[in-house]
Amino acid sequence: MNISDIYRFLLDYRSAFLSxxxxxxxxxxxxxxxxxxxxxxxxxxxxxxDDLVIDIIKSLNSVYLVVxxxxxxxxxxxxxxSVDKVINFIVLGFSLLxxxxxxxxxxxxxxxxxxxxxxxxxxxxxxxxxxxxLSKILxxxxxxxxxxxxxxxxxxxxxxxxxxxxxxxxxxxFALQSILEDIFSYFSIYFDKPFVVGDFLDVGGQFGTVSYxxxxxxxxTTLQGEELVIPNQTLTSSNVxxxxxxxxxxxQFSFGILYETPVEKVKKVPLIIKEIVGAEDSAKFxxxxxxxxxxxxxxxxxxxxxxxxxxxxxxxxQQNINLKMIENFAKExxxxxxxxxxVLVKNK
Length: 348
Known about the structure:
By secondary structure, this protein is an alpha+beta fold. It has eleven helices and eight strands.
């Protein structure tokens, strides 16, 4: 190739070269000066969304700029169809890559804003894991959509591919049915909030404090200190007693005194119980009645309310009541009954 050939080549492609270098220069100046100035202005504002926009634009690195410049310059020359298609596919690939990355940043931005808002407005323990899972699902969906668009532009039949994916998805869904049920139950637990971490639950006779709520299962720490793992689907399909949400605990207990107790003493028993329960700050007296004649005792029934949900406090109050009953009954010479049997022997 001599000088004339080179000169003729430059003349034929001068518009493409001018377009390429002109585009590179404009984009470089934009990033160097205009974007720099916009970045300074965005930092002075209280709004964070403009920072997100600047960050997205900054992600257009030199590779993107070169690809875009090649694409614009290719429009000023006549290229073979195969070369033109290759350039178009490369530009499409980089464009989809940029759009997906940009949308992922937008998803992260709004998810983090939502988590921050919910955590500030929630006094109880806030679990952000559902929003993290939602973020991953959205970002994964963006990649799937971008891949489908790319293959459709390559000439592949996307509808047939979607049909195949649908059939495979049904088969996978059947295989993972129990896992999917637990995952959906997790979202139901999260949004409905029948319990949170720290609540004391009774699940089918199993007692424990919620220590962790996961995607597939929830863990309770039992009264014995063991870790009880319960599938989320079991929790949403069974009766769960949440003692943490009790504002008052209704307590009912019975006791009996001897049949030999004088009537005057029997009448004093409800008054004694009322005085004992009323002395407890955490208890609210409801009633005390002589309600039945037992096999070997005069039976009384007592009802009071605990104005706290603390189980240990309830046990302390009940213990105090029991001890004071023993002391006060001893002073009044009222004896507790116990199972007895009287045998009458008839002399002939």
